[in-house]
Amino acid sequence: MLGIMAAPGCSPVGIDKSAFVVRLPRVALRIPKQKSHRVASLLSKYLLDMPRVKHIVEDPQDPSMRLLLFSEAIAQPDLEGVSEEKILAVKEIVPLDVVQHEVVLDYSYWPVEHILKEILPAGCHIAHLNLREDLLTYKKIIAEVILDKNPKLKTVVNKVGTITNEFRVPEFEILAGEPSLVTEIKQHGATFRLDYGMVYWNSRLEGEHKRLFAQFKPGQVIVDMFAGIGPFAIPAAQQGCAVYANDLNPTSVKFLKLNSDINKVGESIKAFNLDAREFMRKLVTEEEGCVGEIASSTLIAENSLNGTRIPSSKENSSSLTEGSDMPSSKKPEERKAKKAKVSEVVKMKISDVKPWEHFDHVVMNLPASALEFLDVLNGLLCKGRWKGTMPRVHCYCFMRSNETNADIVKKAETYLGGSIADPDVYVVRDVAPNKIMLCVSFNLPEEVAIAVTATEPAALDQNDALSLE
Ligand SMILES: C[S@@+](CC[C@H](N)C(=O)[O-])C[C@H]1O[C@@H](n2cnc3c(N)ncnc32)[C@H](O)[C@@H]1O
């Protein structure tokens, strides 16, 4: 990145590779090839120490000779700074022939892999930058260099401003490459197709998704009120759960449905496109059908219409993130073992589930306002119809530095309308200097959730069925 910043005169259209050339004058010791390693080990602490730059190079004047390049600190021809003792030891092996040499770092020298390792989710072909203010002047050239150095990448974008819309979708400026933001990401053995410009996705939640779905057991029923494109729902279904997954964003629900099909868990997930409160009420009052279900064919048709070509999973499998700790970096045997394990899991059919009788977990990942949605759980379940234990709620929220865990639990209790016993408050991640994301988990108190007056389940009103086709 330093090389990019230091490069003056870069045109935003195309890359002027000559602008990336940096010349470093260095003092060197000229010695015969056969003695070079012996002398280099004597002088090691004085020699050039730069990543990917050799400190022993061939003498351009004579291929039988080598140049030992000194660090910037040894800049004088008399090798001032090197101990007398070392100089004497060297002189016993070779004559002290000190010359000047120029180290040339060209365009190919400047790496971008380390940047991408942090920002590029496995399988993805879109590099999503979040450039600092002082780098914005160079945004186009930064993007073009990243694209140029990584043939598997198709698009480089920069996040613009803060997220304010209710679907939590950031605004992106396309800096280089193809204008499409449709891509595929691998996470925990699942494939997620998404349109970065239309749906919420945050790869920093990868660990949190896993922490939570690892708590779900095969055969359990999961209710995800703010499901996005399915990072909780799909792995949960893959490990043998049935999932009711809802999102207000119709595009998220279309991708959720498509991802259910891609990951072969379509029979275990029912997708809804409703406001979360409405979704919860419908879930426990309807006995048949699937209100809000979205046909994945709609999405496939849209993608082919706009000409978007999404690289296949196969193409992406050897992506840049190979060698990182992302799932794609797994060795083939590990991947095979994982696949075998997934296929051993008995998938649960959503059609066999009666959510008005029982569900096990409620996931609420809308940190900006999920606490407020806890009110929908008050009196939600019907006495005489509910069976078994009470569901465990996982409600995400933000906490400011002037707040305590107790303040957050108090807020949760206020919205829920009842007290919470033994809440588990887990710190998910730092969001800003004064803000962290938390997950508050607790068992839904029976006295809060079960309605005092038992009512018969309402009949399904077919007019409620939502079609996005
Ligand atoms: C922070 S994202 C979480 C998505 C997903 N669970 C994840 O972990 O990536 C919150 C999601 O809630 C959806 N959302 C916002 N308001 C909603 C509402 N009132 N009812 C249902 N979903 C809503 C947004 O569209 C967004 O996809």
Automatic annotation (TrEMBL):
High-level lineage: Eukaryota, Viridiplantae, Streptophyta, Embryophyta, Bryophyta
Gene name, Swiss-Prot/TrEMBL: LOC112294483
EC number(s) recorded for this UniProt protein: 2.1.1.228
Amino acid composition bias (Polar residues), ranges on this chain: 306-322
Protein's UniProt name: tRNA (guanine(37)-N1)-methyltransferase
Molecular function via GO: tRNA (guanine(37)-N1)-methyltransferase activity
Organism name: Physcomitrium patens
InterPro entries registered for this protein in UniProt: MeTrfase_TRM5/TYW2, SAM-dependent_MTases_sf, TRM5-TYW2-like_MTfase, TRM5/TYW2-like_N, tRNA_Gua_MeTrfase_euk
Ranges of residues in domain SAM-dependent methyltransferase TRM5/TYW2-type: 117-446
Family to which the UniProt record says this protein belongs: Belongs to the class I-like SAM-binding methyltransferase superfamily. TRM5/TYW2 family.
